Amino acid sequence: MADESEIKEIYENGMKILEDLTNNADELQEQILEEILTRNAGTEYLSRFFPNGQADKQSFKTNVPIVTYEDIKPYIDRIANGEISSILFPDPITQFIRSSGTSGRQPKLIPMTAESFEKRKYHLLLSDIVVKKCFSGLDEGKLLLLHFIKPEMGTPSGLVASPYTTFFSKTNTFKNSLAKSSTSPIDTILCLENKQSMYCQLLSGLLQRDKIIVIGSSFASVLARSIKFLEDYWKEFCSNIRTGYLSDWITDHGCRNAMSSILTGPNPELADLIQQICQDISWEGIIKKLWPKIKYIHGIITGSMSQYVSLLEFYGGGIPLVSRSYNSSECSFGINLNPLSKPFDVSYTFLPHTAYFEFLPVNNDGGGKSREFELHGASATESSGIKNETMAVNELVDLMNVKLGQYYEVVVTTSAGLYRYRVGDVLKVTGFYNKSPQFQFVERQNVVLSIGAEKTTEEDLSKAITNAKLILEPFGIMLTAYSSYSDTSSTPGRYVLFWELKMKGSNDLPKLDARVMEQCCCIVEESFDFTYKSFRKDGAISALELRVVKHGSFDELMDFYTSKGASISQYKPPCCLKSEEAIKILNSGMVGKFFSPKTVC
Ligand code: AMP
């Protein structure tokens, strides 16, 4: 597939390929499992589950346990430490992909093989085809795609570990395709200092504003951060453009070199124009004003990213937000076949050739509540040392058998050594395209607020906050980011929310009317489930606390997580904070706090 003629063929036949894949979902799923078992059954990990040497689907279904990352970490650590025997899979691995670890879990190391990379590239091409079918003229302009990299980590085995976006930005595939149509010179993307990289990428985008037809990043959080950066630096951008001189603090050699071929001389007309646009009190529609030929905004806006939808709609001024695909460090899952669907209606059609998918039904008691599985010892796996065997094996449903409207946690088996692996994402079936199911992303499993027996999930919180923020709209106040934690430092404990607010017309902190803010607390509590409300009424949970933080506090939170190893490009704002340090960062930006009135409203 790396071959150019093959890529051309995929583009030409793209829609037919998609039709074939989705029409043959059942056969393809059978086939992929068979291939994985034929190739990998002899590995140390899998072989113990096939004591008779019979590695067929039935034995797989009966014997192979459902696992989490923690269960397979010892095997992965051995590979990272240089053991070369066939531990999880027979193929050599090319490197490890390091997950972001920002959505509630620790960063993970996921093995990557040449084959798994090919599958990802194929996935990318297919989602590209769908978007190109939807928007004409995409080959005629340039993309301002904000990409950032992290330093690679070495492992004792000599293999490199890096976030997928970092890995991808260094491949020839990227250099020969996306990088060529991007306004950001490759050296500005490969700069390890994220602030210098962001400055140069945005400056390049402003200098080539007439050519840009798409602006975006992998996740909406990065885009929101970039627009804020623009708000903070637009005067400096204008000054650089006016004088033709790049700011001295850009010291990275690659960036300076690359920018010298774009920032070639003074351009006072362009500087005046950008200044005129940016000095407008309201930044509503700023993206459209700065980049007049823009066709769509690209970036994942589902799941925890949905908190950025209203901000990006505001800045975009009516430009469609396109959430193209659903991927993780582990594998690619599905693509959005309706790029123009509204952010909250986005569903991803699973592509059956990327991995073998199974689904664990999740209790849906009103809002897609994640379920915690009870653990039961089971014979076939006791000797494997995997304690996490669960009765849920019998409940797993194949891709073809998921039911419309039902919630599931996705479980994958990949050719690169993950077998019945819980990804940790909860999805809801919203429809079918041919025979392939379509899923809405609901939430990360286990991202919950909880004081007692009640559990408030990421989805519950998002819905409650969406309800509450409506009452801020008439005051011209926007919620630009939120997070939360369960505060059990006193008894009874309480939920604490952090909100970053801004006025629609400026970055000024809105004047906070205590009554309105208390009402927000109230609406959030009202939106929670029966168990929360009854605990609140009984006094087992204290009044919800809302802490408003100053502009830029959530940028500091992102800086904190990226300093700990997360990549900006893969950053997902944690909806529920577990880290004391992260809580401290948001607390230090606090400018007001409000409590829900004593009883639930
Ligand atoms: P990482 O492995 O760090 O790239 O993170 C992967 C995780 O990001 C997934 O398991 C999801 O929780 C989340 N994610 C990826 N794509 C999407 C999407 N389209 N919508 C919502 N969440 C997503």
UniProtKB/TrEMBL annotation:
Residue runs in coiled coils: 11-38
A Gene Ontology molecular function term of the record: acid-amino acid ligase activity
Keywords: Coiled coil, Ligase
Residue intervals of the GH3 C-terminal domain: 459-581
Domain of life from the UniProt record: Eukaryota
Record's GO cellular component terms: cytoplasm
Residue span(s) of domain GH3 middle: 348-444
InterPro entries: GH3 (IPR004993), GH3_C (IPR055378), GH3_M (IPR055377)
Family: Belongs to the IAA-amido conjugating enzyme family.
Descriptive protein name: Indole-3-acetic acid-amido synthetase GH3.17-like
